[in-house]
Design goal:
Layout: H1 7-21, E1 27-33, E2 39-48, E3 55-61, H2 76-85, E4 88-91, H3 96-104, H4 109-120, E5 126-127
Parallel strand pairs: 4-5
Antiparallel strand pairs: 1-2, 2-3, 3-4
Length: 128
């Protein structure tokens, strides 16, 4: 039996699932740090609960992050790709990205970008 679901319906289903996976009221963030431990506003760490005591969810990197001093010695082709793909969001190894991939393939990326922008007012171009 073949079931046909409209794109709008899939989008709504994905958004409902994302809302059940992530309790926005308990997601917090802090600025990323450079190798000297100084805060940088071109990277952010999002986490659930209290910083350091609970679950890291994802890291956000703006384009300026890849111009930083610590990136200068990395693979130039990778840096070029990351700059092109930024701002980017990288999931931590908490199984949440795998769960979304297993349920929805890559169809969850745009709904998640929209959800992220709406809840944190931070744009995302690429999800890693």
């Amino acid at each position: 039996m073949k079931i046909i679901i409209s794109e709008d319906r899939i989008y709504d289903l994905i958004m409902k699932h994302i809302n059940t996976m992530f309790d926005v009221e308990n997601i917090h963030w802090t600025y990323g740090t450079d190798e000297e431990g100084d805060e940088v506003d071109c990277a952010m760490l999002f986490y659930m609960g209290d910083y350091g005591d609970d679950e890291d969810l994802f890291k956000w990197y703006g384009e300026d992050y890849f111009y930083s001093e610590e990136m200068r010695y990395r693979n130039k082709e990778m840096i070029k790709k990351w700059k092109k793909d930024s701002p980017m969001l990288e999931f931590d190894n908490n199984g949440k990205k795998d769960q979304l991939d297993n349920l929805f393939g890559n169809k969850w990326h745009q709904p998640f970008k929209d959800w992220f922008q709406k809840n944190f007012n931070v744009p995302v171009k690429t999800i890693e």
